[in-house]
Amino acid sequence: MRIKTKLAIGIFSGIVVLAASCFLAFRAGKGNAEDKDGESKEIPSESVLGEETAVIALSEGETRCDFSSTAAVPSLMPLADILIKEIKEEEDVSEAAAFYLRKGEISVYHGMDGLTDGSILGIGMDFMPAAGLMIEKGRGITEKDALEQRRVAVLNDKAAMQLFYEGEAIGEVLEIEGKLFQVVGIAGTNDKTQTEGLVLVPDSTWPQLYQYEEPKAVALRSGKELQKAAEHAERVLNSMVSEESAIRYKIQ
Q: Which segments constitute the MacB-like periplasmic core domain (predicted)?
């Protein structure tokens, strides 16, 4: 309890700094959830990972926080990793993982071909099942990749098509935010609503791409009720954030 109190105080004290780094996230609705006032709110249908995976990330009102230009409050950094075990304890949660997310103005190129309408994700070993992704070719990101901070990348099939068309991607080199990464695998999903190109890299390489760490989002899946599981994760994450804070974790 003492740790939670200290973290909450630290988070609240840094809200002014963090608020400057939020950008507008256009949200389409799916289903209903309840906000902290008990009122109905929309759960978006166009998550970066598709309708079958919920994503919960720091937001200010209807805007999702972006850390591309402003470093986050240090006390926010560990929350998703600290609380992921508690999130998984909910019976409606079948898989959950914390991950870095950079969406919007990203730079991913293979030669002259660039990725449009895509995202870069910094992931750990538990991310693939939480995102409903499966390796279709090559290999996934390994623990050794993470420990050695190897510059390797897994593309989903949409990103591979944009960057390589019908060509072979495995073994090729990408330029991600000006750094060279080797493609080691191609991933796919059975969720037809997942339409974005995804570039997955070891989360340990995130500081190489963006110079500083930042708070993670949470991806989760449910074998029962996804909405209920997502609401649970949202509550757990916000239990460490002051109720007066404008910056809170929200279902994306």
A: 75-234
Give the tokens for residue 188: 């796919």
One-letter identity of residue 165? Y
d(CA 69, CA 87): 30
- SS3 sequence, 40-75? EEEEECCCCCCCCCEEEEEEECCEEECCCCCCCCHH
Q: How many distinct structural domains can be found in the chain?
A: 1
E strand or H helix that includes residue 121: strand 118-123
- If you average pLDDT over residues 60-70, what whole number do you get? 80
Please tell me whether residue 134 adopts helix, strand or coil conformation. strand
* Residue ranges making up the domain that contains 187: 2-251
Quote the pTM value: 0.82
Return the exposure string of 44-63: e unless at least 16 CB atoms fall within 10 Å of the residue's CB, then b.
Answer: bebbbbbbbbbbbbbbbeeb
